[in-house]
Description:
Blueprint: E1 2-9, E2 12-20, E3 27-34, H1 36-39, E4 51-55, H2 62-68, H3 71-78, E5 81-85, H4 125-141, E6 155-159, H5 162-173, E7 183-186, H6 196-206, H7 210-214, H8 218-221, E8 233-238, H9 244-248, H10 251-256, E9 266-271, H11 278-295
Parallel strand pairs: 4-5, 4-6, 7-8, 8-9
Antiparallel strand pairs: 1-2, 2-3, 3-5
GO molecular function, one term: carboxylic ester hydrolase activity
Family: Belongs to the esterase D family.
InterPro entries: AB_hydrolase_fold, Esterase-like, S-formylglutathione_hydrol
Amino acid sequence: MKVVKEVFVCGGKLIKLSHKSISTKTSMNVNVYLPKQYYSQDLPRKERIPTVVFLSGLTCTPDNASEKAFWQFQADKYGFAMVFPDTSPRGDEVASDPEGSWDFGHGAGFYVNATQEPYAQHYMMYDYIHKELPQTLDSHFNKDGVAKLDFQDNVAITGHSMGGFGALSGYLRGYSEKRYKSCSAFAPIVNPSKVPWGQKAFKGYLGDERAQWQAYDPCSLIKNVRRTGDDKILIHIGDADPFLEEHLKPELLLEAVKSTSWQGHVQVKKVHGFDHSYYFISTFVPEHAEFHAKNLGLI
């Protein structure tokens, strides 16, 4: 990995990185926030610093949430690192929407492994986020026998909009192996198979076979994933979100969990007056940070 820039912020540093991805066959950017505990000589840790992964929404880069969500304050408060991946492969060689729209292609990888050409050449975002990136970060930061950061075992995941879908999908698909300790989401696309954003992306990346769609759709996955322990999913969404009724439809997830082991353990908090922006996200980041900190063993 190449360090592009180091930014002092709050009590730690935001490290902007670039690397050649095996999954996407492109250069990928990722931002990592190292909290004050990483640098402190006064706070020795017996265990590695855990990680929270934030998956961003349509059109975003790793910089959006790094600059606007204010996760760094919470990371310092509880002692976790933050990982902000990109939302798609990029570059002139990477196919995008032939019509040039913003909700498919560059900046809109939907965190799936594409099976349809020409997208299958580069849009292997599921493998990149959940398999390659944790291993690559581990190799970069934990060198010379000193392992201070945990990118693979004590990890939580969250995200916004398309990234909220990616967080829910990745959490549920990896649930049996406990890939993530906890999951939350901000205004997620909960049932992409049934809404325009998701249908466009799934058809473009996965083709017409609905079984391929259901393999990523949270509303399908959660019916077949048996909850263990006291695991919960936390979701916030604004009642003034302009995408609420057409693309997000949180009620579909609550309907899907009925008569499953998740019933009563998926909390959807609809908050009055809030929209789809980072003003909304940053307002409720503290609650999500506390939720994950408890599951990561920091509280």
